[in-house]
Write a structure and sequence with these properties.
107 residues; alpha+beta; 3 helices; 34% strand
Length: 107
């Protein structure tokens, strides 16, 4: 199993709007793509100083499954325009690792 982790930050005033966007549109869109090898997506949220941090954790069977989701550059952030409009900042690249804390998988 391969895990893809990504972080985004927004203002407290946009946090609920962003969370709703994720749950009601973005995650639904990912599920509707029926990506081969996609297993699950989890959302974490926490107050981080003057911002609210969001972490998405996605589970896939393989790097090929992640490439089907994100494209050839599988660690590039996938951030729709609607999300960019409410985020203050975000990771341009996600991190990818094997579940269980093993080192990053080889291409």
């Amino acid at each position: 199993m391969v895990v893809r982790i990504w972080h985004g930050w927004t203002t407290p005033g946009n946090a609920d709007k962003y969370e709703a966007l994720l749950k009601e549109e973005i995650f639904v869109g990912i599920l509707n793509r029926r990506i081969r090898g996609f297993k699950n997506i989890q959302l974490l949220r926490r107050k981080a100083g003057k911002e609210v941090e969001f972490v998405t954790i996605m589970w896939f069977d393989s790097l090929d499954s992640i490439r089907e989701f994100a494209g050839k550059d599988y660690e590039a952030a996938v951030v729709p325009e609607k999300a960019r409009a409410v985020l203050s900042r975000f990771d341009e690249r996600s991190s990818t690792t094997k579940s269980g804390g093993e080192e990053r998988p080889e291409l």
